[in-house]
Amino acid sequence: MFSKAVKAVCIGCVVLILITCIVHNRCEGPAPHIGFKIVSLSPAMTEIVFALGAAQDLVGVTTFCNYPEQAKKIYKIGDFSNPSLERIVGRKPDLVIVNLPEQMRIKRQLEKLNINIFISSPRTLEDIYDEIIKIGRILKKEQAADSLVNYMKMHISRVDKPVLPVPKYIEGNAVEGSSKKRVYIELAPKPLVTIGAPSFLNELLEMAGAENIFADLVKDYPVVPQEEVIKRNPDVIIVLHPEKITDRLGWRKITAIKNNAVYTTLNQDHLMRPGPRLVIGFKELKEIIDE
Amino acid sequence: MNRYIPIFLVFLLAVFLSIIIGPAQLNADILQLRLSRVILGIFAGGVLAFCGGILQGLFGNPLVEPYTLGSASGAALGGSVGMLIFGTISPLFAFFGALGVGFFVFTIARIEGGLLRDRLILAGVVMSFLCSSLVMIIMVMGGRELYEILYLLMGYLGVVINSTNRLMIILMIVLSGILLLYLYQYYRELDIISQGMETAAGLGIDIQKLSIIIFLTTALLIGITVSIVGAIGFVGLIVPHISKLIFGPKHLKNLPASFLLGATFLLLADTIARVITVYELPVGVVTSLVGVPFFIYLYRRQ
User: Could A249 and B36 be called an inter-chain contact, meaning their C-beta atoms sit closer than 8 Å?
Assistant: First the structure.
């Protein structure tokens, strides 16, 4: 009985060791890299590095880094919320781009190992532009960074429309005297997660000439009750998850649902990633709001 | 029997308060929304407190409740696993999580020809810890699901009800009602068991069989509850004690009282949760925040 158990444990250990070896060998990275080496833990930053024309410096990205197509082929060091320290260190990077606050843990570990880090934690559009300029300077791509920022600034700019009188709503709390469409963006359905004031998406909405119904909340991604959404009665609802929302109990009198102004086709990556593709996201957003 | 009257009045008051208090102005749609919330509150609070009361009676241990027996954590784990695979918390997974952990706890506690009651509790606590760390792993691995698991672990009543889940929720609540009535019929056996195992065995009660029936049925009930509103803590532990303080040890009286008090407590906690912030606060936070001082006060007064 006892020896049987010992045998089983021994066999189990051997199998485990074998599996580890095989998996480890398969994970060996590509050929050694010459020159400046970057590991990017931020999908948006990966896009930015590509846009600056420094893609050859990337020696490691996360599994979330799915754009552009070539990024998928770069060595993966784990996913966005759980990157592997060993895999990062194994790439012997000169610089690791860390996203805060999500990657606080890995940032501390990297600091202990004296690895250079670049912190990406943009809250506003201005932050995004700053970070592009900064990373451009580090990668010696100042010009490319300047032109990327100018390109983004040109396409993401405040819409100065003449203020049109708004048709009065028969019911609901639509604000009189404001021609801005009031928008509710839903990121997740269980619980309801939306965007508050300190997020660049809020800024994008404002620039597109609309108003976020939760712009008064000081949290970037607040969880809100259904009742509050109904009370604030948005004119437009943008859904960034696959669940259907029009048949919810108690929601049918919301202006957006009555008027069929619920949009579900927007690409979350265009709006949620603080990178070059915000230009596309902003254009899509504006099309919805101008409709 | 007349002690039920004040309890019932307080219950009605809680229902009334949760219907009238809230950020939005009351109209037909808001009323619908709040009523659904009230129904979920009565269901979850009642079921948790009832299960806690019956388990405490069965195992003669004041610490026993759906949490300490592993069912609630198992349901939460099952729900999280379901979410990782299908991207949404599936009731089926929560239910199988609760049952699976229940089964494990049973296997650990089983000896030749019977069940060790003390070991059952120990096994439950141990499995709870295991489930918590597994949920933690899922939480760390998942990115955007973080909120969802967090709210599953703390529980909240503001669940979105739509045409896809409406029928399921109604069916689950009806099923829970039937299961509660089924458990309630054992009140006499429970009274005898709480007076002593030997007496109970001498009177011809099959304690092992009863333990298994009650244990599995409560696991099922907890699985259902967790899958709908999340793992709301504290209600199942504290409310049965309060119920026993008021109604004494007889299960005929204190089990229905547990149900009513549990529902009242959860409704009041949810009303507070809705009023104090503009955000959706998990009701589990409030149940412990409000419940602990209240419970200490009640026990010190004794």
Answer: yes
- CB-based contact (8 Å) between B132 and chain A? no
pLDDT digits (tens, 9 = 90+) for B213-253: 888 888 888 888 888 888 888 888 889 988 988 888 888 88
Give the pLDDT band of residue A28 (cuts 50, 70, 90).
Answer: very low
Specify the pTM: 0.80
Contact between B280 and A192 using a beta-carbon 8 Å cutoff? yes
Instruction: Give residue-wise pLDDT tens across range B79-100.
Output: 888 877 776 656 678 878 888 8
What's the CATH superfamily of A34-155?
Nitrogenase molybdenum iron protein domain (3.40.50.1980)
CA distances from B284 to B43, B119, B270 (A): 15, 28, 9
Minimal C-alpha gap between A179 and chain B (Å): 23
| A residues 89-148 closer than 8 Å to B (CB) | none
CATH fold for domain B4-301? ABC transporter involved in vitamin B12 uptake, BtuC (1.10.3470)
- 0.90 surpassed by complex ipTM: no
Closest CA to B229 of B8, B36, B86: B36
For A92: left if phi > 0, alpha if psi spans -120 to 50, otherwise beta; the answer is left
Q: Which of residues 253-272 of A touch B (CB under 8 A)?
A: 253
- Residue B144 phi, psi (nearest 5): -80, -15
Q: Give the largest CA-CA distance in chain B.
A: 62
- Subunit contact A248:B36, Cβ cutoff 8 A: no
Residue B145 has a pLDDT of: 65
